[in-house]
Amino acid sequence: MLRFIARRLLETIPVLFIILTATFFMIRFVPGGPFTAEKAVTPEVMRNLERAYDLDKPLWQQYTRYLRNVVLHGDLGPSFKYPNRTVNEIIADKLPVSLELGAEALLIALVAGLTLGVLAAVKSNTWIDYICSSTAMIGICLPTFVLGPLLVLLFAIRLGWANASGWYGPVDRVLPCLTLGCVYAAYIARLTRGGMLEVLHQDYIRTARAKGAGQLRVIFKHALRGGLLPVVSFLGPAIAGILTGSFVIETIFQIPGLGREFVNSAFNRDYTLVLGTVILYAALIIALNLVVDVVQVWLNPKLKFE
Amino acid sequence: MRKAKSFLLRFSFFIAALFAAANSACTRQGATPDRPQVLRVSQRNEPAGLDPAQASLPDEFFIIRALSEGLVTPAPGGSQRPAAAERWEISADGLTYTFHLRADARWSNGEPVTAADFVASYRRVLTPATAAPKAALFYGVKNARAYLTGQVTDFNAVGLHATDEHTLAVTLEQPTPDFLAYVASGPWIPVNPRVVAARGRDWTRPGNFVGNGPFILAEWQPAQRIVVRKNPLYSGAADVRLDEIDFLAFDNEDAEERAFRAGQVDVTMTVPVAKLATYIRDRPAELRHAPLAETRYLAFNTARPPLNDARVRRALGLAIDREKLVKRVLLGGQEPAGRFLPAQLRPRNDVDLAPAATLRYDPAEARRLLAEAGFPGGQGFRTVELTGWSRSQTPVLEAIQAMWKTELGIGTNIAVREATVHKAALISGEYDIGYINAIPDLVDALDVLKDFATGAPGNYPHWSDARYDELLAGAARAGDITERNALLHEAETRLGEADPVAPLYYNTRNWLMSPRVRGWQEDALWTRFYAGIFLQD
Fold first, then answer.
1. Which one of A64, B9, B98, B171 is at 20 to 30 Å from A265 when CA atoms are compared?
2. Residues B392-430: tens digit of each pLDDT
3. Is A171 close to B421, i.e. CB distance below 8 A?
4. Which residues are within 8 A (CB) of A186 and not within 5 positions of it... i.e. 6 or more apart?
5. Contact check, Cβ <8 Å, B135/A45
6. What ipTM goes with this model?
């Protein structure tokens, strides 16, 4: 297993290098620059700005210099848009917010999704199944930018229990995490139901029942491990989606997370911040996929590390 | 069914428990006389920084002006009032301004505010390595431009001198009647040079920031909120009634409006257009309008046929029904614009421009001009592209498209591009007709009109007219205000006759404000005045 992980980690190095290089040059080919401001500046001011950020140097020189700083010092450079902050600082500041949002949403998604899914599978084709399945279907169909404002309307504006936006106290976590969590809960519920239904009809479950195992024991000890497989393969892309896709939630609730910086940096032509967030997200997604692969082998005896 | 009910019941308990467990660190507050006066203002663009030398957006100056003040400061109505300087004299030849600083002025760290601090601040703005985006607002000062470009390396040659601890002499290149408007502009706000030297690029962070304004920077959570608290050392502290201002970050107008309804924000930046009618009908007391000195216009790429023909440009301008555009499409109280300069920027004692220099709705004349240019009924006219930079502009662009189609028989493609791509295309001249917003830095017609001088960075129509350039150069040289105004009037007339641009409307700011906010004032240039504001239920 260690060899498998080591090899996968080694493979990441060229992947990250290619992503970094491609992003570096692609963002430069986009029209406009970081100083294409609302109001046009005089040529001498533009020259001073470009000199201050080394944009007057040849592109390959900027590239080698950037690469050297990233590889040797882990320094992602100063932000073009926020002159008094570095990309490292911005990421250190905002990533925890996005991670917290994602982790709490995922927790809600797992708890609600698994509960609904298991219930629906065990009581399949009863009214409980119908309620759980339709709830899940509604969750899948309802996009976050509809659900979010609806929850705000109800809990913040009508009932006054929470802020409509912001990320100040614990209470501000509830609505955004619920909004983001609900959508994934719906997917997880459907996947769990499907996986569980398949497993519950397997011979080994019948054997377990025949040996006198109780309903709960059958579900949690025998069925769940197999029934969760589809959920686990879904979790890899789902976590990546939650992290990179938190932009919508962060905008609806005005949360100072990295998802907004990720998108806005491209609009601002904040070259270094674009690169920093792209590399970070790429590394995160690669790492998460690796974790999912490992967990899958652990859960499914049919798979082996190779 | 009972089970389903109990499930629902439990679920709602779960939600309620989530809120309860999370408890309230809510920022909602009411204001009663004995409670601290905390104003919560929505902030649209996260400040790139709070350094007056490096700031460029009005949004940044909203906060900077709460923290520091220049020699003079804008006053509501477009004039200037004393700030760090209590009085000033202008020499008889109009070339030297002598500012006398308030003797009791203190930085928020207790140090006295001196004339040398101002000189050091301005030297910093003009130093090329600072890369100050608004350094051009110093060009009226003798040798300022030369120092910025490195042609002059001795700062003593620049017309900025501290003659004693509290006296600052500013020498100009040439007499400039509206010079005080420049002194009141954002980049002229000083910094404490010792703090900047000691803290480097971190000097604008809370705890480090030292200013000479009514408030002190207490907290800055990027993209979240900036909190400023009353500065007891400020010389005008007696007039400041607010204890604290919270600038809450909202980059989305819908989220902002929801927060306003939830009672989290007292003053918003805008109102979503879709909500305007609802507020007009149901909550008129909360909806505010203020005119802006902003002209929204169409720039014609004069380098591209058929737009290189002035008759074609005029025909396009005359075929737009601005009244309809404002009343039926925009709905926000905007004013139709027949000429480029909005009322606030027109020289004093201004007279109307000649009809040939203004645009009104005249489809018959438009059709005649188009036929004269060789396109009767729009025949042979290629499909031109009309570009904007925000989806919210699509209704305006579509209305113009429809007017040109009906009145002139011309086909138009609409392209909404991302803001930077749009601006880059305007600069490089790779567009046909562009929708543009002109936000002036200060109340000076010359500062706005110079955008259309040959080769000027804001000359998006890529228009060149020797007479126009001459008139502007004359106005810049004119020491006499009457002569200057006459030349500016003539320049605007020239612009109106040649039609490189078609003004559409003068913009309005629409925003939401809680009725408990009293004494709120603003001018047409996005300047905020915090002195008289207080909260009362």
1. A64
2. 899 999 999 999 999 999 999 999 998 889 999 999 999
3. no
4. A113, A135, A136, A137, A138, A139, A140
5. yes
6. 0.87
